[in-house]
Amino acid sequence: CSTTPCRRGTRRRGPEGVVLPAMIDALKDFFKLKAEGGPELPAEAHERAVWLAAGVLLFEIVRADRKVEDAERTVMRTALQSTFNLTADQTAEIMGLSEERSRTATSLFEFTSVIDAEFSGDQKKRIVELLWLVAFADGRKDAEEEHLIRKIAGLLHVTHPDFIDAKIRARGQG
Length: 174
Hints:
single chain; mainly alpha; 8 helices; disordered N terminus
């Protein structure tokens, strides 16, 4: 699969060597249906799409400064696992899919729209806090990371006071 296109139903290895099932096709279908206002997917696929949307936003921060560091990946992994109560296998799968989707996506909107529609205001504020935790994981805050977090917070309709509160809370945890 790594040198030839994968067919639906096949398996391939992600960036961390994790085997990724054909679920990515189902997730792509979900995002397409969501954008087109189509019918709902089964609850499990819907739940995975939310996990993936959050994972992609987190990975966008990991790579915002053009350096993917282990400390940032570790914080991302912990954030996904603790926020969504994922198993180690689920976390590894979502991490791999998130990186792939992050690198191929043309817009943040397909991910922020899922989070915006599914999460409460407090949950969206928590996502922004997690973005800040990833940004601070390497011991510094880059301008690219802050710009991207501001952009994502705006797309999630997180108020400026909540944006600042999330940043302060994340800085205190880091």
